[in-house]
Amino acid sequence: MRRPLLRVIDAVMLLWLVATITFLLVRLAPGDPTTLLIAPTATADEIARQRIAFGLDGSLPAQYGRWLGAVLQGELGTSISRALPVTTVIAEALPYSLFLGGVSLAGSVVFGLLIGAWQARRAGSRGDTTMTVLTTALFAAPHFWLALGLIVIATSGAAVLGAPDWARLPAFGVQSPAANLTGWAQLVDIARHSVLPLCVLTVTGAAGIARYARGSLTAAWNAPHVTTARARGLPASLVQRRYVVRNAMAPIVVLVGLSLPGIVAGSVFVEQVFAWPGLGRTMLGGIAARDYPLVLGITLLYAAVVIASNLVADLIVQRLDPRRAI
Amino acid sequence: MKAALARLDSRLLWGGAILSLLTLGAIFGAALTPGDPLAIGDVVGTRLLPPMARSSAGALHVLGTDAFGRDVLGRLLVAARLSLGVGIVGSLLAATLGAIIGATGAWLGGVTDRVLLALGDALLAVPRLVLLLVVAALWGPGLPTVVAVLALTGWMGVARLVRAEVLGVRVLPYVEAAHALGVAPLRVLARHVLPNALGAATVAVTLGVGSAILLESGLSFLGLGIQPPSPSWGNMISGGREWLLTAPWIALSPGVALVLTVVACTLIGDALDKAPGTERATGAIPEVSRPRVSTR
After folding, report:
1. Would residue B53 count as lying in a domain?
2. Inter-chain CB proximity B133 and A25 less than 8 Å
């Protein structure tokens, strides 16, 4: 039990380091939120009072101490631009990001593994090469560009092609504004709004996982013990199940574990283009407004998720690969 | 010649061809396309021309013109200078920084090594895009910031690789022999250890160029990278956003250029990764390795 405990202590230390680095990065940057938000006619006295309200008074080490103490108590401060507790702002945006990220990750894993397995079975064939070109290109395409392309196709493209009304998908926001839908109709409306962002995230995610799964599965197929198994006359399907997939699974599980943070952080561009009110968009807004507490809070959340998923991926690999066991 | 070509990995061939074409275009392209790609001229006569159209002055616009009547191909190629330059310089700087930090840590060991490792782990724990956004936005957008930030957020992978290699190489007999011969420690590191530890880093650099170009385009798309009127593929897409329905070619062509460039870098990186001589000795069962994860 010693090692896992050490890993947890490591993780907490890492989180503290991240907190300190981001605090320095954000607070040493030029610019001051007080002057951005207060009226230009404000007196020096009023500015000073505003500083105290924002927690920006005192020396930098003192501010750091205050901030860290509050974070340890689960307090992330008050958002400067929204005048709400940072935890509230994050809690409002998080479900939207979790929905986009969770659904698209699940889709990416399923489609990615299927495509990768299909390719590994016929490695080197024409179909395999075509698929590799396709996945490489999709993986290389910037999210925001794909998103804009989809918008053109789903709105004016669908209209030009004479697609029926239901096939013209909304490109902005989560719900139709001022429609006041309830119940089933509201769910359908939200689902229609999420089709395009989910498409972008799933297609690129699946392309990445397919590329990796193909490599990992091909390597497993080429291992000497697989040749032995085939030479012994075992049917290909049995070999695949028992000798190939089991060995190829570990790196793929690590990959999925490491893409878990993407659920939270992976959709900044997609959220921005589709006006999806998730964490990424909140973060961009916070950066533009020099909303220090908000930016620090979201960054800290991102880092915590990354560190936690690294930990989980390591623990799972130890279960899957006995050589890595403690 | 033909035999030599056949022996070359087709991925290297395609990747190299795409990059060479783009580089040539970046160098000579602006001279061959009509009009100044930065200046705004006869807007009414030349704006929003579709691809392959001729302007009222008779100039041929192969990829059309944008809302200010500037030739899209010309801007694309000028942007290629910036995008390729930022990608290559940013990635090389990151790799250099990573090699220095990784080698220093492995060579000195002890507290220095642990501090550098912890620093790298901490930076790896924040998604690179988030770090980029925070720094680029708060420290002022622009070309120097983008390059510096790409280097400062991209060194961790190379540092890990180089550190591991140096740790392995420093215990080899010829390094011991160099020490025994009385060669100064820094010279042993520079002449005998580092050259044998940098192989793994070259792959990371090639793949790093692609992701650096993508990140730069993303920053520029959000208005936090290269500032207009200087064209970059990212801010060209952003500029074409308003004209998506009437003039889709403005946003289409820089995206295609981006995809081609990143694919070329990926192809070359993949080919180098599996080239003979760079492969590790493998056991019967492939060892679990940490996959590279997209930094977007």
Report:
1. no
2. no
